[in-house]
Amino acid sequence: MEKNQEFIVTIEDMNEDGAGVGKVDGYIWFVKDAVIGDVVWAKAMKMKKSYGFARLMEVLEPSASRVIPSCPVARQCGGCQLQAMNYEGQLKFKERKVMNNLIRIGKFAEDEIHMLPIMGMEQPWRYRNKAQFPFGKDKDGNVIAGFYAGRTHAIVEAEDCLLGVEENREILDIVKRFMKEMKIEPYDELSHKGLVRHVLIRKGFKTDEIMVCLVINGNKLPGKERLVEMLTGVDGVKGMTSISYSVNQEKTNVIMGKEIVNLYGPGYITDYIGNVKYQISPLSFYQVNPVQTERLYGTALEYAGLTGNEIVWDLYCGIGTISLFLAQKAKKVYGVEIVPQAIEDARRNAEINGIHNAEFFVGKAEEVLPEQFEKNHVHADVIVVDPPRKGCDVVCLDTILKMRPERVVYVSCDSATLARDLRYLADGGYVMGRGRCCDMFPGTVHTESIVLLQKSVK
Ligand code: SAH
Fold this sequence. Notes:
Blueprint: E1 6-14, E2 20-24, E3 27-31, E4 39-47, E5 51-61, H1 74-77, H2 87-104, E6 114-119, E7 130-137, E8 143-148, E9 155-157, H3 167-182, E10 196-203, E11 210-216, H4 224-232, E12 240-247, E13 259-264, E14 269-273, E15 276-280, H5 290-304, E16 311-315, H6 321-327, E17 332-337, H7 340-352, E18 358-362, H8 365-376, E19 382-385, H9 394-403, E20 407-412, H10 415-427, E21 430-438, E22 448-455
Parallel strand pairs: 3-5, 6-21, 11-12, 16-17, 16-19, 17-18, 19-20
Antiparallel strand pairs: 1-2, 1-4, 2-3, 4-5, 7-8, 7-10, 8-9, 10-11, 12-13, 14-15, 20-22, 21-22
The protein binds S-adenosyl-L-homocysteine (SAH).
Enzyme class: transferase
GO molecular function: rRNA (uridine-C5-)-methyltransferase activity
EC number: 2.1.1.189
């Protein structure tokens, strides 16, 4: 086979990134946008020794799980890698991916793994409470909002992402009208000129409160009173609670600037996960799918098996979502997180909820935990970890093994590092108990998993 040659291939599998995988004469092809079970016509794009990448030209025989993507720009955008698959197929893909990693990387036998069926969403659309739209111009010079196409920074117009809330479109419309009225230009990366870079929109799903923050390449927003009037007036947006702008004059891919100028409202919106209240400002971290977050952290609470007497550590605690969930049922919760602002939020969130048995440390889990254990002889009945994709540091795992809590609850956004770390803990005297995946990001290849480990009696 040569580059640009076209061929027919049956898609037998899908890789981690959601690309279809098929074989022709023993040679492996990755075909983006092809679905497991499809027979497709593909074109060879790039070839390595034992595998190659091909472009999907036409689906000749569609897989039983193939659907027409609901979003017209699904293929261009690439934000949702699995939109051509029905939801049932997506959930199966995610369960299989986690299971494969536990077996292949974790070296667990199938009968050691007790994964319950994945928690899917009833409505796998419009689940994101946060959106950031870049602004630019189309080829006719009209102001548009959308997403960056592929690896370029050309903006493709798309104002109604189906993962986002319906209000996004209304808000973008108002911002565009405002810009036209005030003769405000969108930002242009190449010349570093123009004002409006991004618009950040957040919504509290339980409170219906809405936040809008314009990210601008300047320190003044001309006509800011007019913007407030348009967003909050009779033709404005229901639930508008907080309006601000963020100053970002750097030549950078980072979206938000560090400085926030408040224009309307208290500077934050309020939302709840379970019965815990959160104040969310433009720069705060907050889980993007609050419905599934509540289910995932509810499972963490269940697996933690608290009776009210336990000392619990929540490592990689972020803004303390899990900590505050657990604090209601534990004697004491200690949270550890590397980002100081997140800990500030965690402390404030504890305070506004009247939670007094949670204490937070700023620092690396692999430094704070050993230090507290060795110097202060702290104890743990339960340790919860929710690390970033790279998983837990080995020093952190070693300290957990030394502390020998009754239970470890591992929440993970990357099943490869989950499998690696579970193997380490299993070799150190823990037994894998129940586990479950939770679909926090329908349409995409990402999945969260949660696994309970128990101290072995030996
Ligand atoms: N459960 C949290 C989210 C966890 S995401 C919540 O709901 O808010 C993983 C977190 O780990 C991030 O907040 C990240 O800043 C933090 N982190 C990354 N490396 C770390 C380390 N070495 N020690 C402690 N925290 C770390």
